[in-house]
Protein 1
Amino acid sequence: MSVIRHVGLKTINGPIIVLDNIKNASFDELVKIHVENGTTRQGKIVQIDGERVVVQVFEGTQNLSLENTKIHFTGKPLEIPLSTEMLGRVFNGSGKAIDGLEDIFADTYRDINGSAINPISRSYPRNFIQTGISSIDSLTTLIRGQKLPIFSEAGLPHNKLAVQIVKHAQISGNAGGDNNFCIVFAAMGVKNDVADYFKTKFEESGALNRVVMFLNLSNDPIIERILTPRCALTAAEYLAFEKGMHVLVILTDMTSYAEAVREFSSSKGEIPGRKGYPGYLYSDLAQIYERAGIVKYSKGSVTQIPILTMPNGDITNPVPDLTGYITEGQIVLSKELNKNGIYPPVAILPSLSRLMKDGIGQGFTRHDHKDLASQLFASYAKVHEIRALASVIGEEELSKTDKAYINFGKLFELKFLNQKDYENRSIEQTLNLGWSLLALLPKEELDRIDAKLIEDFYGKVKVI
Amino acid sequence: MLDNRIFSINGPIVKVKNTKDFSMMEMVHVGKNKIIGEVISVDEEYTTIQVYETTTGLSPGEFVYGAGMPLFATLGPGIMSNVFDGILRPLKDMEKISGSFIGIGSNIPSLNLNKLYNVSVEVSVNQHISPGEIYATCQETESIVHRCMLSPALEGGIVKKVASNGKYKVTDTIIEIEDKNKNLVEITLCQKWPVRKTRPVKKRCKISKPLITGQRIIDTMFPIAKGGTAAIPGGFGTGKTMTQHAIAKWCDADIIIYIGCGERGNEITQVLEEFSELIDPRTKKHLTDRTVLIANTSNMPVAAREASIYTGITIAEYYRDMGYHVAIMADSTSRWAEALRELSARLEEMPAEEGFPAYLPSRLSQFYERAGYVQTLSNKEGSITIIGAVSPQGSDFSEPVTQNTKRFVRCFWALDKALAYKRHYPAINWMESYSEYDEDLKEFYNENLGEDFLNMRNRFSNILAKERDLLEIVKLIGIDVLPDEEQLIIEIAKIIRIGFLQQNAFHKYDCYVTLEKQKCIMKTILYLFDKTLDLIRKEVPFTILKDNGIFSKLCKIKYEIDNENLERFDEYIKEIDKFFKEQADNISLH
């Protein structure tokens, strides 16, 4: 397609510019904007009305003037250069290298919007990833190719948890001997400190040369924030499906991302939906999350751990709500557990891994895993009921069984949930720990476990 | 026609200026890739088109071609056990063309045009054939016979020529008929039908048979009828998809249409894998042989999501017209409603509640009204049952999609987050759910399971309702203060919850339970209840009775006895008898 140049804008509104008298522009096309002061910015076409074209500018519109701004239509959508050289490098939200080194030598270019994986080309994820964290491994098991977000709040140790998962997952990922594990890290609207924290931690664990970083910090332009996860996932898909690597993608913070989408939507004058977010937020988020998975004809996999901070801890806020509808479960962190000094403060009851049922048990973890997990959930749920009762009538008045539950609950939190950030528990250890806790309850209370398993394990495993 | 060019593009909405060539709802091909679209509004200045694929790379000035007919589905042998996208393009063929990722502008025929079917012709020369009448049959899959009917869009006429029985492709002419204007019409094995138009039937019949799902809480407590409608609302993680999978696997419909509308890609993969391994307990054939999957995952184009629901129900009507009982799983109708909202916003229509268009209720009701138990044009009985999942925003059932759906369905299975947190599955809340088919199905239950079935069901409901009230008190003062009779109710309700309402979809005996076994479990639980109550009234302390182990044994009875060996329930009855006889003897001793 021919390349068009054009001088002058019609209007500028927030991150959006409007041009008139444009012929042959195509939808979603990348445009380059040459500013008076000699710098170049990028944008893409978001609407075409006859000869009027609406462009969103990635780097923001400050210093743009109606006249003297030159526009250059490239004739293709935004593509980023890809190659295995990306490992160990740092890029900005639109895929430009910002670590002071030269641009990478591209093996190929890809449209950052990607295309949907054909559902019948997917293979169903079944490989268990051992994170070394009891609460996750036993109760919300992470599966290779899954998208499992962490729902957190400001002030909770979600970053620490993410680093721990990466560190241990890396170990189990490399256990097979093939050194094909890598991490794609996308920061959207996070503080400089947070980005640094991840960088230092990756460095400490010696993984930095296996990490691709895409950084859009909280003072970077918001349109670029919308591109950041797309660039990161394009890189991840390339590494996974073309280079056969197991890629773990960390996206933080999805709430900032969604807010950027909202800000952009309102500057376009779109009709707002719930809490001002546009009606298409679901489809928009899905285009990001659905890029996790395993494809039949490739060895690699894309596993996503998006992190989002729930405003005011509200899980019904549109961002966690819509995320939960798309992702395959969620790990919810609890303020209360954190206050009690429990790390990682995983709130067991609202947490869930949808792919867990097919990735645990005989042949994956251990044959008693399913029943044990189900029983731990049910018993811990009961603990909450009994605690509520105890707060009314006092712990002294509880029946003998109920007191056993209170004791179980306390030790469950202290011994099972709680662990050090360097502690890497094997699945065997975790499951045994679970059994030794269940031994605190009377046998009749274990209504989720097969009689045979109770016979084999109940009271026979001593760890505590 | 050649002069129609794209004027404006905004996401999936494309406009053409100053043309009168297009009619409302006409199917069009847009741009050089000829991607499929549909005309959704026409005025003097603009014709507005919604496009079923991504518009990336589309430019103004590219041509738009009209297809001359509304968005249609090609119906014929080859649909069954296949996987399609929202506008009925087979995903397997798309994979062959564009690989693991979906490409743009793949115009692939819905049916395999090269496959040969063993056709037997059911009409003879000079016979009159009317619309909807069956003229040929062929074995489509192991469990489904495909009956080709004269399209209801045609007028019918005299059969002039018939092919001999043998192997034919879907586009081969099977019969020729002469209509009343003396025109010869060639009839092949397939037909086209506009997806937004309801296929006609002879008459709608009274609903009287249940759709048996093998799920206790549904079949016993909140039954759905063949030809009925049900909604499953629930927040994320409450098990909407799990419940739908369970019903799709085990219900006694002949055909399942599973519409994955704006949901996860891996779920479609899971259905594909699981269903190809599982065997239908009734026909002993593979479940995939009776299943059609329509997949528009959440990252596939949004306009096709809107169409996928109509594509699905059109296929369902087509098979219903052959005389089959069809069940549709729509997962999730909220995503469909959101697709409507998204398109409506792009059209700058005036929003009603929460940004949803004002026509949301009418679209929902049009969809659910396509369900029903009917007599077809060829005088067969068939039915369509619709089971729609609803994903309320923020798990709030007062949002517009849940509320409007509730008005148009007669079965409401409310999923409860609190139950899901306790891993009580299916997490159907027994206090909030209801079924309006109770009355319609009464006769069936009384005839097939005896009159005590419904009595026992009602007793179950009463016990559960009483338990709820009692638990309010227990929360304040603890259980030990309650009188024995009330403690018994709480204890029995616990058995009902764990031993009856909870159902383990992964257990070999528990995933599918016959109505007879459901009745046996109910009977055994109530037997224990009556016996214990009897003794409590004779002033035997409940604590003694409770500790006998039978209570916890009944919770697991569902795992112990399979559907074929119901006589084993007698062992439990005997055990209860034995224990209570001892207790009664004890009293008389004192």
Protein 2
Amino acid sequence: MKLLTCPMNGPRNIDEFQYLGPVRDDADPDTASDAAWARHVFRAANPPGRLLEWWRHVPTNFVFVAERDTVSNDVIRTFDPATAERP
Amino acid sequence: MITRPLYPLEPGGSAHAEDIHLGAAEGLTIEDRTAAPRFGLKGPGSADWLAANGVALPAINRLARAGGLVVLRLGANDITLLGDPGAPDALDAVRRRWDMASAPKGYSSWREESWAWLRLSGPRLNETLARHCALDLRPGRFADDAIGQTRFAHVEAVLVRAGAGFDVLFDITATAGVLRDLRRAHRGHGHR
Amino acid sequence: MTRLPAPFGSRIDRARTVAFTFEGRRVEGFAGDTIASALAAHGQWMLSRSFKYHRPRGVMSMAGHEANTLVRVGREPNVQADLTPIAEGMVVTAQNVAGSLAADRDAVIDRFGRFLPVGFYYRTFMGPTRDAWQRLWEPIIRRKAGLGVVDTDVPARTFDKAYLHCDVLVVGAGPAGLAAAVEAARAGADVVLCDGEPELGGSLTYAAPDGASATAAIAEASALSNLRVMTGTLCNGWFEDNWLPLIQGDVLVRARAAEVILATGGIEQPAVFRNNDRPGIVLGGAARRLIRHYGVRPGQRAVVLAGTPDAFGVATDLAAAGVAIAAVVLPRPLPDHDVALERLRGAGAAIVTGRIDEADGKEHVGAVRVGDDWFDCDLVTVSVGQAPAWQLACQAGGRLGHDEATQRLTLTLDRPGARLAGSAAGHADHGAVVADGRRAARAALRALGRDAPDLEPPRDNGLVFAHCALPLDPDPRAKDFIDFDEDLQVKDLINAVAEGYREIELVKRFTTVGMGPSQGRHSALATARTVAAATGRSVAATGVTTARPPVGPETLGVLAGHGHVAERRTALHARHMALGAEMKPVGAWWRPYLYGTGERARAIADEVRLVREGVGVLDVSTLGKLEVRGPDAGVFLDRLYTMAHADQPVDRVRYCLMLNEMASVIDDGVAYRLDQDRYYVTATTGAVAHVYAEMTFWNARWRLRVDVLNLTGAWCGLNITGPGARAVMTALDSDIDFTRDAFAYLDGRVGTVAGVPVRAMRIGFTGEPSFELHCPGSLAATLWDAVMAAGEPHGLRPYGLEASRVLRLEKGHILIGQDTDALSSPDELGFGWAVSKKKPFFVGKRALEARRRLGFDRRLVGLTFAPDAPEVPGESCLVLRDGAPVGGITSVAHSPTLGHAIALAYVHPDDAKSGHVVTIRGRSGAPIRAIVAGHAFVDPTNARQDL
């Protein structure tokens, strides 16, 4: 089983985590067209390579961001978005 | 009217049943500490208020023992104080001061109601932990002041060392199921 | 039962006789025997019939590497006879036989093999008619194919799971693994050494080279306290981040190792010649295991195929065991072994150059042919080399290659945290194997941050002759098996290539080579060489098929563990039990379904009537209970829910509806504003975990000053409901004024009842006057007792979940998840009233607007059925319009209050008007008429709840 390193709890079996999807730029609901909004809701980008993703450590309910290579499945880093600014 | 709290393993409690065996005979002692006092704060202002009121806060996922209190730092603003039966006044004092204080002072995390609290000890402790918890709890790997917020016997739980034993704090409504799991794994293995 | 004297028979205890039966016949063995060794001691070699041709099969590796040894033990199929110890009274039977093992009616298939060509699955069963597969072929194949029969009545057995952490996990306790484990443990690392065999030592226990012994290493391994030895433990896979399942009997140990050393050794390879599958033709290692582990003399007269120097060790053991050696067959010169050959010649063995071309014998080998010469024998030992045990290494990202010079398969592994050692890494000489184990341990120690100087790669002189690649030209009369599990011969693979399947993975799928229980252990190398020759490529370029877990067979019970069932109980569990409630699981929760006894429908109707006419109490403790608090709590709820909460007055309760970003309804509940900065929010029982996670997630993105606390398990709730509810409430000892004018519908109050701190709300799901009291769980029983006592003069009784469902349906209340699906929008549910038109933003608002522009094609409505309707539809029955489905029934029940059936259903929007008639297809298939009803079936004007 894969390990994922929670910024607060350290490395844990990945079954202690909930995957919450890729980090997306929040589209502006007031200006987006219906088509653009539908794309925002339904068509998250799934590029090969590095991707920022939301994860939750379930026992502590701690939400953080992981940067993962979607080709190799290597997790490059994890961080607490409240204390670390995204690059 | 006098109201007496009723916890799961007491007669009339939700997990009170004849088939749940708690005893030292098979190398594992399970002590029910659910009724032992504790007090938790969580949410904005919790850490600041405690620090301002003389409770020294350890780092996140560490515990500190001082002044008759065990301070569990479960998160930046999630702190639970476990009372020391030898010094029951310390916890009461903090709680009373909090009750009287005005906001901001954090919010109650109701840990005294949300958690069952079992203390496991005995010669087969390590084997029991290894059966129910994926965390590396080896001596030397899991520090004396470490807190493991993880899964134990299929439920989310907080694990801390308690002398030679371990305290396990978990969803109080799962008490019967957790005890049944403990007993089943323990007996199943004992007979092999 | 004659056995060879000690030291032969290291595993058996001659003082303890164990009796079992095989094919109905009583067999005696010794404690420590496997099924196969005990049977071999009695001359019973045939253990099974082969998968396709029903040919007689017996032991070949004595290492669990082939399907030949699969037998049925008691009710358990597919037990490996060469690995499984015998037990007193064990009942062993052969598999895949029609009739008996000795007289298998299907053995005739062997003679018609040409009618079962390779890939026959894909072409034979297409005709003669369109449904021939289902009617004709499938039943035949199901009967003939597969190994063993599953017994669905098998009694439950106890399985279990555990976790294990260590610094270094060494898989394989042969010379390399032992050396590695001891080296790592000496340096202070926490080491685990596991091996599937019952003792340490690996090949040293049956095939030790001169002067080599495991004794010293075993003694040291046993003495090191930081070295845990797990024998009889199968490491059955490698998973990401060094997570390895170790199967120890009926326990699955999930190991997480910082460093893994794979000292998995080698897999001895068979030779390919006509009738190479006859019982009595065994690998050299198998003969030595029989002799040394079990004291069994494997035959009277042997032919030794000496492709590698290992054969001389085999011959020495055979001679010591009293087996006459008829011939030593040398496919190639072995220059350093003239002395040994001379000694064998002197003992009467013919030394012949060549290969074994053919074997003869009906159910056991009787002779082999080398060129033109036949040699009578009842045992053939095969020594043509090993393949590295590649399964775990390849799962960890290792690669198999082929060394053209020595004709060996090579294995490489380049991954942090995992390394090879010993024969698995390609070493042959004993000294090199041991040295390589130590070298691997040093490397692992360095990776752990310990000071451990590197060791020189060992010099290995044994590699040149370690493998002997015999030609793989097909025998014209076939039966030269490459894959014994699947009965595949050389020509089958050549034919597959001729059919156009040139890639090894395609050859595998077309021919099924390597798909049987042995997973290519004996066939992968020969397959690669055959396909390489047929396609004109190198063996390395041809490759082998992908290795996946499990390495060996594992029972589903081991994977399942002890069958954990999640269980949560409310604090009132014992009260319900004392009242005789029938408890049922709802998700993880156990809830009272019904309190009454006797006829079920009548008991449920009684509980419904109790609430409509008197007063009842329901344990609602399983409701999700979330406290949302902080300076931004109101703003937070405004963003999450469709109604306005920031402007909600303190002490008021408001319905709340949660959408997801596509504007589908995902939950509902109520929000009770306790303070300016504190709300008490309920969520449905099944959705609270999801809602809690969603709230946390949104808060992580919005970063508002809010904390969400899940009080679901900490607090309990009771709902007192019915025309008599207020009378009960006012009879309670409380500082809350429960009178009508003081406590209005959707009011909330904090106070005490019977000394218990409560949060009281005037909310309900039944349509009757209702009061919900929430309190800390430890005081729930006190509160319950007080309510029951106060209610007794008013006829208060508890009611169960089923009555609750009927009551809410009579009132037309929906259950999220039952009456909604992934697409349900508030508009489809008629919940437009619950969606704020003023708020600039809430989750789902944007999509809701877009969906409104698209229009909707269904509406959730109530349906009534005539009291004398011959059939009432069940949940999920389709609503039809002009014969086409437009929706379905989501909830249905008999209403005791109305005396007929009622339902909620999705219908076409044009039909969503009171009085319209819709048609539903019932479970019987017959059309059922129903009339669309308005918002609620009972008390549509909501007059009752404010009585």
Protein 3
Amino acid sequence: MDETTPPPPPNEASPPPPPPITTSGSPTDFLKGVVGKRVIVRLTSGVDYRGVLSCLDGYMNIALEQTEEHVNGTLTNRYGDAFVRGNNVLYISAAEAL
Amino acid sequence: MDPSSTGIQEPFDLIRLSLSERVYVKLRGDREVTGILHAYDGHMNLILSDVEETIMIVDVDAPLEERRAVKMAKRKMEMLFVRGDGVILVSPPSRT
């Protein structure tokens, strides 16, 4: 019966909230942040290496600990430590919260 | 940088700590070698001795997902120089 209260107007003006940003800053800041964390390193060949990032250098050479090699999602090898030559790296993905 | 237990500050430290040890090296072209590491440089050129090379021969006619080594060829070499640009991964012996 109360026809004085109109329905709330569709608020098409307000955009959807931005996705939560877990970290911000430069690529270098990201890389500094993931040292010591679990990461997934993908090579241009498509092979993934999952492990704890020990350190990396300016060529993106990477030292990993507790490394698992995954090809097409299946575990193919384990290495205690691994040095990955930087030119093969496609990306480094954080596998845990920063 | 990372004050973890290993005391590694840069990736090449991993290689330096593996001098005179047997290392596993994954190379481009579906090849692997294991050998005693004698020397390396910034390109990851390597000098290895007592080397065994494993060559995975893949069936290139198979679909990409099913492609796996159909044959493994092995050969031994006394002394080997590996050009750095062929190196994908080097794994030292497990340090415990």
Protein 4
Amino acid sequence: MDAVSDGTAVPLSAVSDGAAVPGSPGAAAPPPVTVTPAAAELIRSLRGRHGPLMFHQSGGCCDGSAPMCYPAGEFRTGGSDILLAALAVDGVPEPVEFWMSKSQWDLWKHTRLTVDVVPGRGSGFSLEAPDGVRFLIRSHLAP
Amino acid sequence: MARYDAPTHWQSRYDHFIGGEYVKPHGGQYFENPTPVTGQTFCEVARGTADDVEKALDAAHGAADAWGRTSVAERALILNKIADRMQDNLESLAVAETWENGKPVRETLAADIPLAIDHFRYFAGAIRAQEGSLGEIDDDTVAYHFHEPLGVVGQIIPWNFPILMATWKLAPALAAGNAVVLKPAEQTPASIHYWLSLVADLLPPGVVNIVNGFGVEAGKPLASSPRVAKVAFTGETTTGRLIMQYASENIKPVTLELGGKSPNIFFDDVSARSDEFLDKALEGFTMFALNQGEVCTCPSRALIQQGHYSDFLAAAVDRTKAVKQGHPLDTDTMIGAQASNDQLEKILSYLDIGRQEGARVLTGGSRADLGGELSGGYYVEPTVFEGDNSMRIFQEEIFGPVVSVTSFADLDDAVKIANDTLYGLGAGVWTRDMNTAYRAGRAIQAGRVWTNCYHAYPAHAAFGGYKQSGIGRENHKMMLEHYQQTKNLLVSYSTKKLGFF
């Protein structure tokens, strides 16, 4: 369950459009989002089939409170969103951006998120569902 | 106690229902459909793709004109016949729905299926009674307003009430004269086909088309198609936004129901007497366990006034401990299985973060292993957390049998906490003082405020969200207009020219 090196976030300044993260990760602070080895493997696989990817964290019912994985640019982010991380995943040439609505992050910002994967069935329009798996967020209190 | 046998009326495989007949998926692929009761697969379902959606849209467009021109009497008669068939098969529909979704059969027998039946009857009546309007602009000019069907609409159904939620969308759309392409949830794709086996002969071919499959493969082509005049979706915020984005490309309307984090507010005077009403309020608290908490309006935040906080909460925890968890097909079982493994995992992840944030577990808090064949199923203990409204378990929809409890000082404090959420779908207010009930109900920013009741869903009571909970109002005749165009004929009865040219 622990985050691994191939899933840590790169500094936002390297990729960001300028959206600021509250309590922006400094050199010592843990990144707000990391991925497990299993999730990294799934991201590599999806990248191979679908091209560059992005995440947007959902809220609300049914498949809500879960991260949605789309082809990069499929979901149009805007001023109501915040870029939390640009995930560097081994074997994926470009960072995978992880977004959330700002209003939701205001309620989550005291926690750090780990993208994991579990066997599952459905997920809105998220790319991994046909594989019989589902991305899942595990949360930890920020230090 | 009675235990229903596991249903045997399933086909081993379901294709798409297009143009009045079953059609194999263009891609030739199927996916397995497990029952959450045991985790075992009980049928295969067609894995739809854009080609299948196009074929369904062809069929729907072929049927829409004639269906839209049938008289309202004829359409109402068909809806009533659908209701009659469902009434005649209520038990088998209930058992099918329980096997599909995992919910207890006492709920499907008493709520899901009876509500669905009534819903078809309600819209059969509503469309008969609907009238256009005329406005007398001046002595010679009249503005007539007619309702016209939109044509072909797309509907994406959630998995928490597979038949009832499909009915909430189908009944008004069909009553209004639209043809439908419907995608059931991939977690619960089969029970709608059992329903269809009972009613398909009543519907002209192409009026209802069902394409199965995953959101990304079948839902997206449906939601983004320029050939649908409207998209109706129940689900979560990110997919809701994505559907609005697709709709914006085609300048099409959407209705969205995207969930909530509903407060259930118990004022001090609830405990003023130990009587029937107090007993009802304690049941109202325990409603968070209805449908395993997999309800957009789950009363997942209980706000209890400080004066009776300890006593009421103690009694509420006792009531929660009395919730009988067991085989969903036992008529005594009050809480069944979560609908899918990923849903189970998500709930467990929230039980984890709730504890990390310092919330106290007053009862429950773990996965339940019910033993035997149910060991493979997805069961969670009804859980009561005590904490603070800033905690994530108070702010996010867990969609499980989990309630987070906190206290409040007075009416203003209750309203402040109740409204401190991104969502605004449902709320509950419990008090013996109707002035308090009225003020609280009007101040809470939510589309439905149950007052001295909870989780009632009668047809003719509008249901929909404020804030990030969505757009539109289902369950009421006003939903007809979400499936209709307005045609204005502006008619002059004067023979005199204007004199401009």
